[in-house]
Amino acid sequence: MRHAGSARTAAEAARPTLLKAGGATVAHLAYTYGTNGYPLPEGQPWAVKRLDEDQVIADARAARAAGADVVVVSVHWGTEWQTEPDARQLSSAGR
Question: Nearest CA to 63 among 4, 9, 1?
Answer without folding.
Answer: 4
